[in-house]
Structures are given as structure tokens and as C-alpha cells.
Protein 1
Amino acid sequence: MLSRTADHLFWMARYMERAENTARMLDVNYQNSMLTQSADRAELGWRGMLGISELTQAYHQRYDAVTPEKVMHFMVRDEQNLSSILACLRAARENARAVRGKLTTELWETTNQTWLEFNRLLRDGLFERDPSALFEWVKFRSHLSRGVTVGTMLQDEATHFIRIGTFLERADNTARLIDVKFHALAHDVFGEAEVKETTVVDFYHWSAILRSVSAFEIYRKVYRNVIMPAKVAELLILRPDMPRSLAACMSELVTNLKLVANDVSSETERRAGRLNADIQYTRIDEILATGLHAYLTTFLDRVNDIGMGISRDFLVVAR
Amino acid sequence: MFDEMKGADGAVRDHYRTYDRWLAQQAPAMMGARREEAEMIFRRVGITFAVYGDKDAGEGTERLIPFDLIPRVIPSQEWREMEKGLRQRVLALNRFLHDVYHGQEILKAGVIPADQIIRNAQFRPEMIGVDVPHEVYSHISGVDIVRAGNADGSGTYYVLEDNLRVPSGVSYMLEDRKMMMRLFPELFSHHRVAPVEHYPDLLLDTLRSVSPNGVNEPTVVVLTPGMYNSAYFEHAFLAQQMGVELVEGQDLFVKEGFVYMRTTQGPKRVDVIYRRLDDDFLDPLAFRPNSTLGCAGLLSAYRSGNVTLANAIGTGVADDKSIYPYVPKMIEFYLGEKPILSNVPTYLCREPEDLKYVLAHLPALVVKEVHGAGGYGMLVGPASTKAEIAAFRAQLEANPTNYIAQPTLSLSTCPTFVESGVAPRHIDLRPFVLSGKTVQMVPGGLTRVALKEGSLVVNSSQGGGTKDTWVLEA
């Protein structure tokens, strides 16, 4: 396969995944903002939203105060913000269009239709009327893309690069989400929180994190217990059977990377395999002992390094 | 005025009778509903073209080519004759191209003035003495044909121009057929319409047949300028249909005289390039140095015979409007045959006599730039205002060698579904002739229709649409 083709497929999948994760985070923040809570705390949530995507600076260049309306506008439909859902769906579609011949008709049409429909929904005012419905729609369009990919694409290199893009992006996004949400609580959540029940406010905070990655019901099913921060962290980082956990993402990444291996990719494979093994054989108390933030920062660096390795080895071959 | 469906007496022609009966039975709202359905499908499938000079970002830059619901029908005996004429014409044009880049016999014989060729901007001295597989230069030829009415009510097909560089539109021919079968399946059980869906197979077969010497399993690619080119949909479509890679210049490189593409598994050799890129952009080392669309060193690999380009470099010298008037003579010179398809009588403005005539008859003539394409830079006398004619006259007098003129043919009309209902609109036809080891084509071609009432300009960039073209099997 052409390197450029693989590059487009990889980014098509990344942008679609990013659009979905942005919709997930926005939805949780929006739902939370309707709960009774102090204004400070609400603003903290929206600030976290910007911080998570490293967009605080870009936001303040264009807006002054951090208000729910402005942040949502910025993250949903601001064309200047290349991480907005609008920009991500456009980028996914443009990448798909560049390699439409490599996609099944169903996958191309799904991606094209998502872009066209999203614009129509914005024009029709769905975002103003019912933001949650719009976020839900984005999430389901992303589910649909993935389903159509798995259900119609030949399982060749094209599919593998799409999957690599999906899981690399998801690993990144989930790690950022955990980091910012655990940071958002000013007090030391892992001090006594492990033993004592969380406060009511905290309950909503943790359940929001879980919901944002479709893990609330999973948590109950897995732990059959009240919501405790350490268990939330364990579920989102280490559980291999939780589809959006870092462990699950890394395992998929390693599997797909092996399937596309070439003469120069062994170092990238080694690094991905090592990160995967580290996660598999780590316990949550070890992570908490070194500090969650430090752990996640290192994780993000390593994921980023693997992403660059994939780029170098497969996507932009030296000329 | 010749109408494809109805004779001068208003009677429906034989080959349209079944369709006409069917159309009369349809509820008036049905056609409108079908057209909306077609537009929705085209948009979802992304069958669009980009418009030059339209720089807005977003959805606006991609437009649908209007698709008309009423087919253009050609009876089988007419097509058989046309096909013979097309084979003859394209064969002669390929002989001519081989000749001008080798012995130049036709110039020595004085059939075509030598300076017409040698000083033509489309003549590529780089191609002199270069041998190409099977001596084929124009592998994909799009020959534009119109039908004009005669005084006695009959019609005559004329070749309007030969497109031998990178003719486009074949994807619309295929998509229009697919759409018609989807919208009106019952029509296809009432008519024996000759199939066209195997075009990509014939194209791949043609491209494989011209691989460089000694390559048995050639790697074929389609070279596109990229997704912002107006015909990108077609490039992607053809690559996908043939199951070959769609490459851009940046995907290719030349090493030790061979062309390779960059793949996720390392370099892979490329043998045949179906390029949808003009000569000027192919190789920055040989042609435009600032072109980023091509591949450095491509020309030298090509001249060494290590890669085949389809179409060959330098075919423009044969489809130039100033060479067009000589095509009937080429047919006689190379094949010893009488031309089967007629040329439109043409005035060369470089000839003082012709220029005088043209200047005296501007309101009645169509004047075209010799190198123009896409309906730009032309004057349609009868449809122009006095001011437009005066402005054009000034351009023409300033640079007469740049123009040719032809009588305004009354292009035939075909019933078309427009806002006011079913009404006649002018049409042309572009059959696609494939030349490799053998000459092949699918019956019919792309019918383009000028949707504006009275307009003779069928180009998609100028508000033209397309129709499905049916060659009825006997």
C-alpha cells in the first residue's frame, strides 16, 4: 500500500475517534453543569475540558471568559479550532476522500454522510436546542464508522492502519481524560478516599468520568461496589476487557502493528510492545504510589513517541 | 434543427418509440421525485467536481454535475458506422503521432505544412526518436461528436474535436448508467441497451497491453494531481474500478532509470502510468521546474523505455485545433481510406484569406482558441451581443494565429427534463476509444447536454449536464 494512502487512513480514523471523544467529554461536562454545584466548580470543569486538549491558549486568543456556551461553541463548531468536532469530522472526511478508492463504498458513504449530516444538524439548530442529542449523534456516527469498517473492509493493511489510528488516538484521549479529571479534584483523592465512601459531589464527579467512557455500568458489574477513585483509575487504565481502557488500546495497537510490520519498524514495535507489557504487569497501587499525574504524563509521552515511530516507519517515508 | 427523438414532421423516431410510450404513462410528479432522488444519491456517493476559481472552503467548492433523466438513444446501425469511423480516425491519429516523432513522412509529402507541426507549442522535441510500445501514443481518446441537421431534415454526425491528452468524463458515463438502472429498472427490461459497465476492464486490459518490454505482470497506476483537481472523483473511481493504486507525484520517485512508488513495505516498481496530468507538470526536471505534481526524472525513465505513460507525452500536437482540419488528409495518407466521419469545415485564422472571411462573418461563426479547452475563450457568434463580438474581434485581430472558426452548427437536440417540463436541449457525444495492442470501446459514450435553453455550450464548467447514452442492440 502507498505510504500516503496509509497516512490518510490512519488520520481518517484518528479524527473520527477524536470527534467522538470530544463529544463524550462535552456531554459529560454539559450534563454535570446542570447539577447544583458551585460556579467555581463548574468553571473548573470547562477549564479542564480546554486543558485536556491543550487548547487553553488557543481559546483565550479568541474568547475572554470561560463560560459553558463559549467553550461548547469553541469545541463543537468553531472552524478555527482544528480540534473542534466540526474540524475533526471535516478532516476525517477529507482524508477519506483522498483515499476513497481504498475504502468500501459503505465506509466512504458513512464518512461523507456524517460530514454532510453534521452540517445539516448545525444549520437546523440542534446544537442550540439539545446539545446532548448532538453529542449522542456524533458518538453513534463514530460507532457506525467503526462498525462499517469491521463489517465491510477486507482485513488487510488498510484496515490495520485504520485500527492503529483508532487505538492510538483513543489511548491518548483516554489518558488525557483521566489525568484532567483526577486533577480537577483539589483534595487528595487517594488519601482516605479509598477506604471511606465518597461524598455526594464526588459521586457525581466519578460517575461522570465513567459515563464519558461508557463505563458506569461496567464499573458496577466489575466491582459490585460503591464508586472509589482508585478503582475508577484501575478500570480505565489497567482492565484489558474494558474497551476504552489504556490496556485495551495498547493491546489492539500492538496486535495491528505486528500485522503491518516492515523492514524498518522493529524498534517501534519493540517500544509499543514494552508499553503494552508495562501496563499488563502493573498494579494500580504502584501507579498511585508514583503519582497518577506523573504516570499518565509518561504514558502520553510514550504513546506520542510510538505515534512518531509509526509515522516514520510507514507513513511518510523519507524522500 | 435536428431532434434525436422527433422527426421534422413531429413523429417519434422508431428507436424512441418505446421510451416515448413509457414516458407518456408516467405521472407528472414522478420525474421530479426521481430527479431529487438522483441528486441525493450523487451527493451521498460524492460524485462531484470541483470548480476552478471557486476558492471558498467547505462544501461549496464541490458541485454535482446535473444529471438528466431522459436518455439519449442511438440506434445500433448508426453506432456501428460511428464505431468504424472512430477506429479509423484514432488509428490514423496514432500513426500521425508516430510519424511526426520519427520520419515525418507526412510533412515531407507536403500534406501538412511543416511549420504547423514544428512550431506548434504542443510538439515535444523530447519525443523525437522515442519508441513507445505498439507505437500507440493516444491510449485513451475522447472524440467529440455532434449531429447537425441538414436542409432535407436528415442529420449528419461531425467530429468536433479529438481529445488525445487527458480526456475526462468516462466516470459520468458509468455513473449515469448505474443511476438510470437504479431509478428506472423497468426501462431496461423494455429496451435492449448495450452494456458499458466493462469499460474499466477494457481500460486495464489496454494499459497492461502497453507495458514496457519484458514485463509480464506490469504494475499499473493512475497518476492524479490530487483531490483538489476538478476530475479527482474520476481518477479515484477508475483506480478503484481497475483495482490499481491511485498515486500522486509525491508517491513516485525515479532511481537508476526506473520508477518506484513509496509503499508501507518499501519501494515498488511501477510499469505503466495512466496519468491524468498534463505534459507540463509531469517532470519538473524536463518541463515546468516549479511543478510539484509530477516526478523528477520521469521523462528520462520514459525515454529509456522503462515505464509507459498513457497517454504518451506530446499527443497534443495531434488534437490541437490548428491540426484538426488536416485529420481527413491523415486518414487518406496513412490508411489509404476515405474518412468515414466528417470534419466540421474549419477556417484557420492564420491564413489571410480565411481570416478575412471570419472577420466578415463573426456573428454567424463559432471562434475558438487553438489551445483552449472547457468552453473558455470562445465566441459563439449567434448567441453573442454586439459588444461581445466587438471585444472578441479586437482579440482576434491582435493574434489571429491563436484562433480557428467554424460555421455555427445547429447541434441536434434531445428531450430533456428541465424546470418547465420536458423540452429540447442541445447535446453532443464523447465516445472513448481505447488503443493498446488492439482498439476497443464500449458502445456509446458520454452525452453532454446544454441545460440552458438555446445554449450550445455543453461543458460541465459552463452549466452543462450529462445524460445516459443508450446504444440499442439490434
Note: Chain B touches chain A through 25 residues (CB under 8 Å).
Protein 2
Amino acid sequence: MKNQAIEKQLNLLDYTLSSLWRRKLKNLGIITVFAVVIFLVASFQILTNSLTETAEQMLGHTPEIVVQKMSAGRQEAIPVSYLDRLDGIFGIRAAVPRIWGYYFDETSGANYTVLAVDREIMPAGRSLEMALDGDFPETGEGEAALGRAVAANLNLAGRSTFSLFRPDLTLKSFRVTGVFAETTELLTADLIVTGLEDARDLFAIPEYLATDLLIYVTNPNEISTIARKIAAEFPDTRVLTRPQIQKTYQVVFGWRSGFASICLLTALAAFAILAWDKASGLSAEEKREIGILKVLGWQTTDILVLRFWESLVVSGLAFLIGCTAAYLHILFLEGSLFRPVLLGWSVIHPLLKIVPVFAADDLLLIFTLSVLPYLAATVIPAWRCSTVPPDAAIK
Amino acid sequence: MIELQSVNKFYNLGQPNEVQALYDVNLFIEKNSMVCLRGASGSGKSTLLSIIGCIFPPTSGRAAVAGKQLARLPDRFMTIHRRQSIGFIFQQFNILPALTVENNITLPLLPLGVSPAERRQRAGELIERLGLGHRRNFPAGQVSGGELQRVAIARALINNQPIILADEPTAHLDTGLSQEFMRIMVDLKKAGKTIVIASHDPLVSEHPGIDTIIDVKDGRVDVS
């Protein structure tokens, strides 16, 4: 035999469900609006987490320190001769010159990032090959590896060669040796990777200059110490560390997501106010029903429990629908609704496959920001209304 | 069974719109009797019925219903006492039209933690007794006035309370249905219930089943 208290709660839940069903149109409307708001908030949360996670995974392969030469507050090409002076700093495993720059493709109106490193002297050089479907380009051979978006944009249609303009408008041809894997797309979508000589040829950069220098350290715990030493040795440079870059990604996604979240939280707050307003102004029919129930022996607490169940069912259902829809939105539509907001509006979007990352604390956060305010917004006014004198029903 | 001594009832006590609804009321209603509270609208019948029905306590005086002193009972216990001791039949029956006949009848049992099977069984007995078998699963909004009246009676009896209070139960019924109502009340009295009916309908007050008529006028009572 079931406990009487449990049976009572089941009875009240049963009555709640039938009561919700009786006002199905109104409740369906509330659930729909509420679920949409939760879907928006949850989508941003999942997308931000997924992008941050992907970025962190990708940045794990990047150099620990990047040294850039600064002049009048702007970056300029750095002399390759700086590499000799870096040899004197203890803890540096390898220092590699890098050339990179933007190439504007007038045909598609897109900017590509052209990047060149010497893979042979780069400690992580071999891991670059792992990110490639194909071979890594050899330097001086006019070879290039492309990001997936670039490959799609160049519309190669089976061809393996393409040409880019030098500054003097002569054409430089490249042969495609590989395309970067889909999983790296957040970082490689707009990338053209080539050899140092070919990049110098394309951008007309003299042999004694590079865009920046990549530094690999022996002990990752010493990154900031070595960065300080480099900054002290080369006062005309800007020294960027991997943790700083990771932080920048987090801040960028976090800021964008935070900005959008504030807008959405405003919508959530507006919904809570609406719910409060609706709950405080019980209709004459609802007041009469409360009066009848009270005369029939229902306690004020029974009415409150009824309201609580009602709100919990409505908000819980909206929460489940909203979160599930957000998860499916990221999983199958890859967050297409919000990708431009979080990834920027450039012509080339990273087309990476985002794997939804949905942590328990995110669920708890969204639950706290949606279901709890709704419960408060409906149960508290209902408590005021449930103190309606029961004799109102028999007059 | 029901005893009121020097009962006064004020509404909005101490405020500019203060109204005294009952003046020094004394009455005694025996167990297993049928009493009619007779009076015009606004005479204080409903207030008297509300005090007997444990909906609110008197402002002053003593009111004892089914062995409990109302003035001493906190609101929560008054509600419990009400659902254990009193069944209500309202003027317009106050049935929830969207619920089925059976669900309306079993409403008082929900907060008591009575299981669905027992609710069905108890409702079934009353439904058969009152001739509502063919309407059991109908929405109450779709049944006739006479059937609605019987639904209200069944709901008042579902918890087997010893006292039945009816407030103007025949106000919206034709003569035939009013007589049918009184016939059921007489049967209930025979079954041991104590019945109090507030009505200004002569068909009720002059019914042979009525044991006592209490005239209520301007908040004062006169027992005959």
C-alpha cells in the first residue's frame, strides 16, 4: 500500500495535468515561448563551450611563444638575424621564422591567410602533417596545402593548381598537395600553407625578413619566464605566449557569447515578469475554482502544491524541449543560427564540425536562470491568490 | 450536533465599511435532523451557514460544530474539520464544468490521499445511488440541471460527512427538480445525516421532512 502522502502528491499531480490539459492552448503558448527563450540561451552556451573546447584543442599544437617586431605601435617584418641572439636565451628548444599575411581574392571577395614555416626545423612540424589530408608542401616547389573553405572558394573542380597575384600583379602558381582536416577547421578554414621561399616570392618579402618568429620551449612551465627574457632582450618586439592566445580566444568567444547572453537574459527576465503578471491576475474562473476547492476541504498548501506542480510541469517541459532543441541545433545544424555571432561575419566562415559540449554545470545554470525564476514568478503570486476566502465561492 | 451561543459576526471590523451581519444568535440543531434557515436575501442566512460550515469563525460568541469549538480552531484545522464533518451543496452547485461527473464528485478526496481505485469505487456507489450511471464520464458542463444537482449532492456525500449544508439549492430548479432534491434530502436524513438548508423557497421550508424552521431576519434568528 502506497504511503498516503505520496498518494496525495500523485493525486495533486494528476489534477494538475488534467488542469493543464483543460487550458491546453494557453499552456502550449507559454511552453512554446518559454522553450524558445531557453533554446536561445542554451544554444549560445553549448556553442560557446564547443568553440572554446575546439579552439583549446587546436591551440595545443601552436608554438609556445610568438615574437613580433613592433614599430610605431604597429607590427612589421622581423629580421631573421634575431634568431642568432635568441640562441643565447636558456630554455629555448627551437626558434623558427614564419611568414604570414592576408591575400584578398577579388573573385570571391574573401581574405585568405597565407602561412609559411620551415617544417624541417619546427618541432611540431610533423604534427602539421597529421592535420592534413595529403602531403605537406615542400618549400621552393610552388606547393600549397589549403584550408577546406579556401579549397571550396577557389572552386578547383578537380584541378590541382591555382594562381595568386604577386604585388607587381604577375601570377604565381601553386600546386595543391593537401587539404586540412575538418576537425581543424576553426583554425585552418581560410588558410593557405606553403613553403617559406614561395611565401617570400608571393609577398615579395626579402630573405633576411620574416613576419614573426615562433619559439618552442623545453619546459612549458617556463613559458612566461622565457617570454619575459625575450621581451627584455628585444625591447622592440611584442612577445605573445600560448596561454595568452588561448585566453584571447576564450575572451573573444566569452565576450560575444556574454553579449548575446545578456540580450537573451533580458528576454528571459521579460518572460518572468510576464509570468508574474499573468499569475498575479488570476481569472475569475481560476479564483472561483480555488474558492470551490477550499470549501471542499483543500488547504492553502494544497492549492500552492497544485500551482507548484503546474509551474514545474510547464517550465520543466519548456526546459527539456529548449535544451534538447539547442543540442540538436548544434549537433545537426552546427549552430547555424548563431555561428555568425560567435565566429564573426567574414566571408569565409570556418565550416568545422562542432561537437556539442554540454556540461552538467551549464544545465544547472540554465535551469537556475529559467525554471527557478518561473517557479518563483508563478507560485508566489499564486500563494497570494490562494488566500482567497472560500466563502467567495458560495456567494 | 451544532450549537451557537451569543454569536455575532462583523465584516470589515473596525473599518469605515464595518457591517454587522449577525446579532447575538443562539441556536441548537440536533443530530439527524433537517433544519431550514428561512429568510430573504441579505438577511444573514449565508453568513450563518458559513459559520456552521466552518468557513470562518464568529467574531464573538461560541460556535460548536460536530464537537469542535470553532473560535479556538486555527484556519488550517478548521479546513480539516470542515472536510471531515461537512458536505456542501451550493446555490449554483459550483461544479467545474470541464471535469467529468466522476472527477467533480471525487474532488474532496484528492488532498486526502485516497487512491484512484478507492475514489472510483466510492464515486461509483454514489453515482449508482443517485441515478447518474449513464453520465459518469461526461463533462459536467454537458449534463442537465437536475443531473448537475445530483452531482453536487454526490460530491457533498463522497467523504461520508455527518452534516450536509445546502445554500439556496432550489433557487435555479423547477418545481419537479426541487421536489426531487427534497426527496433525496429526506432519504439522507433517514440515513443519519444532519441537514441544514438555507432557502427562502416555500417548497423547502414547507416540506414535511423539515423538522425545524429558523427564521433569519436582519441578522437575528427566530426558531419555530
Note: The two ends of chain B are 18 Å apart (CA to CA).
Protein 3
Amino acid sequence: MLEIHNLCAGVEGNPILKDLSLQINAGEVHAIMGPNGGGKSTLAQVLAGRSEYEVTGGTVSFNGADLLELKPEDRARAGLFLAFQYPVEIPGVNSTSFLKAALNECRKARGEEELDAVEFLEIVKKKTKLLELDQSLLSRSVNEGFSGGEKKRNEIFQMAVLEPKLAILDETDSGLDIDALRVVAGGVNKLRRPDNAALVITHYQRLLNYIVPDVVHVLVQGRIVKTGGKELAMELEERGYDWILEAVASNGKP
Amino acid sequence: MIDTLKERKTSLAAERAGVIPSGPDAQQAQAVLDAFAKAEPDGFPAWLRTVRGAARTRAGQLGFPTTRHEEWKFTSIAPVLQLPLHPAGKMRAKITRKDIERFTFGLDAYRLVFVDGHFWPDLCSLPEKGHLQLGNLPGHMASSELEKHLARHAQTDANFFTAFNTAFFQDGAFVSIAADQTAAKPVHLLFIGASEQAGATALPRNLILAQRGARLKVIESYASLSDAARITNAVTELALEEGAEVEHCKVQQESGRAFHIATIQAVQAKDSRWTSHSIATGARLARNQIQTLLNAEGASAILNGLYLGDAGQLIDHHTVVDHARAHCESHEFYHGILADHAHGVFNGKIFVRQDAQKTNAKQTNRNLLLSDDATIDTKPQLEIFADDVKCTHGATVGQLSEEAVFYLRSRGIGAERARRMLIQAFAGDVIGRIGIDQVRAQLEEMLAERFDRSAE
């Protein structure tokens, strides 16, 4: 579904991602872990198409399309979704009408009929239940005045409504208490299907107790330095990142 | 002693009257004043003729403002002076309900219609005789209320255009609601510019009175049927008696060649509440002078505004909130959106007089610049003479948040649509405060259309 080959990217001339390669197949959940400053969030932003990041090399193919050639909106319409680490507040833009517009854009791109208000509200009702989201939040402006937890829940709620093929969760666990974490992870799990995939970016192993990954990657200094199964996450939790950093420093490979 | 004082006053007045205007601006002003004087209508009472005479003299002394005047620093009226200024005549062509339908907001209202400043009775919808008096000024000249308030509130001594209007207005709206009454429908004062002649000048003059405890909503809107370089110079006076509540919504959407200069002056008694909205999207040059005098304890004023300029438009708001007495509140909330080469001006003056302890005054002006060539001059001006007051002000100038645009795009919404949604949200923050549902909904739709157009 997603194939990243030797991706190099940076911001304002500073390289951050260096020859990063990664492959995600349909039905899989991958986790990317790593110390702060390693390039985890940069990867998420580059994949979503943030223009502040400059891609200097490599290729990314998403279901056969050249992802890097697509505008952010076309990536979303092609089925890519980023749950932001810091969802932005947008005063004056109503949550419901925003999400309806977004869903209809995605449906149009998939060749499906646009939904009217009644049909849309049906979906909203179902999905708010899934995320235990207070439906009254949706009558407010996008993320405005939401608590940290509500913002994160709202991201996953949007994901549930848009039904992307590939969801990238950028530190969705940060700032969540254990109950909220359980709800959010539960939502993500219920949305897992053989024909979609997820890339879960996290600093801590905690989230991976709830969203169990098929593959775990460790991203250090812009490269994936180690890949393993879910047990790698446990090992990182126990031993921290230092041993990997040391190994990278001494011979370039852990 | 008294005689001396009297003499002094007289000599001062004579001195003033004797000031011979000099320089090209003053000479031009004098020529224009003479031309308008010929169109003086009959039938105005003596007291009003006296007031008009004084205003005419004052206008002659003041002359047209130039950018050397502090109050007109950013707004040059030079293009107005290029035009052959003359009183707009009465249209001969028939104007039908259909012609003006798109300017009615689809609103079920009592409506007065003026075309080029002239009263148009066929197109009006008036209330039954009762608590709400509604009609044109000349029809109410005998009213003692009118005599008490007309041309008593809008100051002519420093503002040429207010003096000019006072000296030469011919018609306008008279609205008066009786004590403790609530108007059954909003009142819509609709001013249409129809003249095809450049320089045709309309001078609407409106008086809105709300007696003790009365409640009233008024829409004052300006629109064009022609694309000529017409001029509107309007003055609206409002007097709110004790406990009265008036919502006044001005909508200015004149054509892109028109010039619009207006003064709105409110005077508020104890515990009265005035809400003013100024939505300005039209005209090549628009200047709104919006002022209120909080003249007794417990009075409160809300001044909302939205100006929207593109192409080479200049839209100027000068507001004055005069806290003359203690325990009054004012909240001012203005948003500007400027594209292309448009120029916005916001000058928000707040006076807190010595007696006005426990004043609570707040002012916000936020501006969105959509192009590198758009400009805004924004200036809060606080003059505080009391010590126990709460006054805050803030002005911001910025572009659309790229972060917000990206967020919307990342959900599948196209870049242009995302920008439009954000601009609309910014405008909606002001429009949403209008308490007349139908007007609010129509304005939202109208703005959406305008943004769609400008995005193309």
C-alpha cells in the first residue's frame, strides 16, 4: 500500500530524514518509535504534504500513485489520513459542515454519491458512539475550546468518518489519560480492516498495548535503524533508547 | 458681567463667521455650497432654517477636508472633488418592487425607500397608525419630538460632511417608537442610488427615536441600481431614552464607482442599550463616522463592524465612543478583510470623561490582508480622564493561518475552498452578531458568493 524508498527531506536546508525506507501492506499496523528529534513527526508531515518540508530525494508510492506529486487534498482524497499531534483550532468553521465537506470531497474522488445532511448525520451518530465523543462538540467550531483529549478523540472521529486506506497517527497518545487512551485505541482497533493500514507514531510503548502492531520500526537520526515485531516495543520500553543510540554511534548499525 | 459675556460670545461668532475661506479647497467648497443652496426646499420651519444656515456657514469655513487634517489623514477625498457635484435629481424612470427586491434581504419589515435621496412612497410598507411612527422627514416637520432632536446631536462644528448634510438635506427617514413598546417588525430604511450622472449627490438625513423602554430594530442599507460615480453623504441621528434598546444595522453595498460618506450619531440616556453593526462592502471610497454619547449611568453600546474591500476600494471607519457618565459599558468589535489593492482605515476613539468612573470599555480590531498590496491603517485612540476605569484595546493585522489551511486540505478540502472557509469564518464572527436572523442569513450568503467570485 505504501512504499517509501530512500526518502530524504528537511526543513530550511536542514536534512532531517535521510534515506528512509519503509513498506506497509494492506491489513498491517506499523509502529514507528524513537527518541525525540529523530524525525518521526517530520515523516508524518511529509507524507501528508506539508509544504514547509522539502523533499530532496527518494520516492513514495501510495497504492501505485506517486504520493509526492499529489497536493495535500489529493492525498486525503486518495485515502491518506493524518491524525495530527497538535490539531489546530479553527474559530468560525463549524465542525459538522467542515467534516461533511471533507467527506463529500473524499466520496467524490472515490466515485461515490455525495451525502445529504440527513445521511451524513446518520454516519456521525454512529461514529460518535464508537469514539464516545460528545456530539455537542460537533456544533462548535473545529477544535475550538476542546480539551487536549477531546482534540485527539476528534481526530480519530474524523478518521472514522472519512474511512481512509492509510491512517497515520502522530503521537495520538500524548496528552491522553488512560481512559481516553483506551477509548481512542479501541476506536482505532474497531476500524482495522484487511484492506486498510495504519502507521502509529509514538514515543512510548504504552499505546502499543492497546493498538498491537504487526511491525515496529525504530527511527533514529532520520533513518530506520531497527525493525522487528511487537516484542521490539517491549524491549524499548524496558531498556530505553540509549542502547540503540550507542550502537548507531559506534558502528552505524545497532 | 452677563453683558460682557454676551458681547464676547457675539464677537467670537462674528469673528468665526467673518473667516473668509482661502486656498483652492475652500474656494471649491464655497462654489459647491452655492450650487446646493439653489436647491433649498420650501416648507422647512424657521428653527430648522436657522440651524441649516449656521451649518452652511460652518461648512464654508471648514472647507473640504484634506489629508492634512488628522481625521482624514489616510482618506483622500480628492477623487470626489474631480466630479461635477450637484444635488441628485428625482428619477423620471419608474422603479418597481422587482428592481429593489434583491436589496430587501427577503425581510418582512416596515420599509421606507429613497431613490437618490428622494422619498419613494410607492415602494414603502408602513405600519398601521400606532406606537411606531414611520415616514419621511418633511412629513413630520410639525412634530415636537423632531424639533427636539433633529440636527441637535450630530456635530457640525468639526465635520464638513455633517455640516454639508445639515445645510442641504432634503429628505430622509423619521422613525419614532413610543415608550415601552416593541416594534412588531424591524424597520428597513433602503437607500437606492439610481442616477446615471457622475457627481449626483444624495444627502439622506435620518432621525431614529426610541422613547423610554422602547425596543426597535432598524436596518439602514445603501445599494445601487446604476454604476455611475454618485455620491452619498448621509447623516443618521439616534436618540435612546431611558432603558430603550435599539439595534441598528447598516449595510453599505454601493457600486464600485460610488462614493459613500456617512455619519451615525447616537445619544444614549440611562440604562439604554445601543447595538450598531456596520457592514461595508461597497463603494470606491466609503467613510463611516459612527459615534455614540453615553450620556447617563448604565448605558451600554456595542459597535460591531465588518469591512470588506477588494480592487482599489478604500473603506474607512472612524468610531467614537464617548463615556460621559459613570457605570457605562462599550464593546467594539471590528473585522476587516482586504484583498487586491484595497485600503482599510480603522480609527477607534474612546473618551472617558472625568465623571465617567467605573467605565468598562473594550475595543478590538482584527484585519486579514489577502494580498501583498492590501493595506490597513488601524489606530486605537483612548483619552481617559477618570481614574477608576477598565479600558482595553487591541488591533491585529495578519494573513490566513497556513496551519489552518493545511489542516483543512489534509482532510480533502481543496486549497481555494479551504481559504474561502477561513475568510468566511473570520467575517462570520461579526455577521453572526446581527440579531435579525433574515439579514444575518442573507449577508452570510452574499458574502459566500462574493468570496466565491474573488476566488475565481
Note: The interface with chain A takes residues 401, 403-404, 406-415, 417-418, 421-422, 424-426, 428-429 of chain B (CB under 8 Å).
